[in-house]
Design a protein that fits this description.
With 100 residues, this protein is mainly α. The chain has a domain of 50 residues. The protein contains 3 helices and no strands. α1 runs antiparallel to α2. The longest helix has 32 residues. It is elongated. The N and C termini lie far apart (64 Å).
């Protein structure tokens, strides 16, 4: 993992951890602002961490092609494996319209 991507997840995890006491205090005392702030800190930090992991994945995949997503293993033809959606037939809909 590159050095520049190592510090931010730790900071975001600490930020998420700081939201937990606020959330707990708000739920115990039934106050909306600490509860909302705790939820905001926890989910905001986790979503930002998820975004950083996507940036890290894209960076790593661009530097080493073996790390890039290649699809399901062992599927030679996606259509025969049922992974490609077939266009649905419109015959039942046309039959229902003609009967009205």
């Amino acid at each position: 993992m590159p050095e520049r991507h190592r510090l931010i997840p730790h900071i975001l995890n600490i930020t998420s951890l700081l939201g937990f006491p606020l959330l707990t205090w708000g739920l115990i005392t039934l106050q909306i602002w600490p509860t909302a702030m705790g939820i905001f800190l926890i989910t905001g930090a986790e979503l930002w961490c998820l975004d950083r992991m996507v940036v890290l994945y894209e960076y790593m995949a661009s530097t080493d092609r073996q790390l890039a997503y290649r699809g399901p293993v062992g599927v030679a033809d996606p259509q025969s494996a049922g992974m490609v959606n077939e266009p649905s037939s419109s015959a039942p809909r046309e039959a229902a319209r003609s009967s009205q």
